[in-house]
Write a structure and sequence with these properties.
This protein is of the alpha/beta class. It is built from 10 helices and 22 strands. The chain has a 6-stranded mixed beta sheet, with helices on one face. Strands 13-12-11-16 form a 4-stranded parallel beta sheet, with helices on one face. The chain has a 3-stranded antiparallel beta sheet with strand order 6-7-8. A hairpin with a 5-residue loop joins strand 20 and strand 21. The longest helix has 17 residues.
Length: 374
């Protein structure tokens, strides 16, 4: 029977994995055991998933689904399971897994990520993941006119990929705001995105909301305002929702906001639960939800956990990060924004070099010591 105390991290995405790696490099493994709990046996590289579900070219599923391999450097454990519930006490608590196993913990990190719609809503079973990808590839290939619902980064990138691989298809992008993406970014950047998407031949329809999930029999979709759009396939491309149902059911509804985001202090601890931290897309923090912010979350949480484990108090605040984004438009295009100085934008050349051509696949695999899907 091991006397090691468990440090549990729920979620194997960028934020959970970053936190695990930051901790494992400093943790006293003679006293503590780090366990990363994740529903799939591999890391899902979301920036590459959009192209993966659009085309079979290049068998991208073997690149964007990355086994955890040496990501914990042999010092921690990856358990493949979902979390059913967990408890919280002054000294820690216990997590119940879908396998029936119960794990006590000294410190818990919640990094559950987001729930996506449509093509990005991957099942948890590996065989079902590949079926899901192939099913969406077939839907897109067989469609003549496609309606994307949501003009944030996901919708823009879907439009770019579809028009890149299937230039003859009719693609419409419907967005509820007057400009693409959201007002975190300056109008100059949002206007450049619109011009770049228009260049692909995609029809962009602004200030229109679409509630339908399937087209009518006549191959059209009617917006809330009554406008008819041509489509024989609808792809939901809105942003993700926080994956926090197990948190509210375990800790009570007060642990999350009305939108479902986890309430956190500046230390990224949960109020009234000093042994529980949270990171990533699911937390209530005024910043864009991006994997690029995982290092900042991970560093803050690791410092605070180590302070607690050494008998001190968590006192390191998370200070946020400048907003930066590279929105791809196909394999060779895109528009980037860097939120420092006066706010700098870049076009196709920079976007292709940084992200569009490679989708950051090798960079992510190497930075996390991930493997390749056989």
């Amino acid at each position: 029977m091991s006397n090691l105390k468990n440090i549990l991290i729920l979620g194997g995405g960028a934020f959970g994995l970053s936190t695990a790696r930051e901790l494992i490099s400093k943790l006293d493994t003679t006293r503590f055991k780090l366990i990363l709990i994740t529903p799939r046996p591999y890391y899902v590289h979301l920036p590459g998933l959009i192209r993966t579900v659009v085309t079979s070219e290049g068998a991208l599923e073997k690149q964007v689904l990355m086994p955890y391999a040496n990501s914990l450097k042999g010092k921690g454990e990856v358990k493949v399971a979902s979390v059913v519930s967990f408890t919280s006490t002054k000294e820690g608590g216990e997590v119940e897994l879908s396998t029936g196993e119960r794990l006590p913990y000294s410190v818990l990190v919640l990094a559950p990520g987001a729930i996506w719609e449509g093509p990005l809503d991957l099942p948890e079973e590996p065989a079902a993941v590949l079926e899901h990808i192939n099913a969406w590839r077939a839907k897109i290939e067989n469609a003549n006119s496609i309606l994307l619902v949501g003009g944030g980064a996901v919708g823009i990138e879907f439009a770019g990929e579809i028009k890149d691989f299937f230039p003859s298809k009719t693609v419409t992008l419907a967005h509820g705001q007057a400009k693409l993406i959201n007002d975190t970014y300056p109008d100059k950047y949002r206007s450049k995105l619109l011009a770049r998407v228009n260049k692909t031949g995609t029809e962009v329809v602004l200030n229109e909301y679409v509630d339908a999930t399937e087209p009518s029999e006549d191959g059209t979709v009617t917006t809330r305002s009554g406008k008819k759009l041509k489509a024989d396939l609808i792809i939901p491309s809105r942003g993700g929702r926080p994956n926090t149902s197990v948190i509210s059911s375990s800790l009570g509804a007060d642990a999350v906001t009305a939108s479902g985001h986890i309430k956190v202090l500046r230390t990224l601890q949960l109020p009234d639960h000093p042994r529980i931290f949270a990171a990533g897309d699911a937390i209530e923090w005024k910043e864009q939800k991006q994997a690029g912010k995982s290092t900042g979350h991970a560093t803050t949480i690791a410092k605070n956990i180590l302070a607690l484990l050494n008998g001190g108090e968590a006192s390191t605040p998370y200070k946020g990060a400048p907003e930066m984004i590279v929105t791809t438009v196909g394999r060779t295009g895109g528009v980037a924004y860097m939120g420092f100085l006066w706010g700098i934008t870049f076009g196709d050349g920079f976007s292709a070099m940084v992200k569009s051509k490679t989708l950051l696949v090798d960079m992510m695999r190497n930075s996390f010591d991930l493997g390749k899907l056989e």
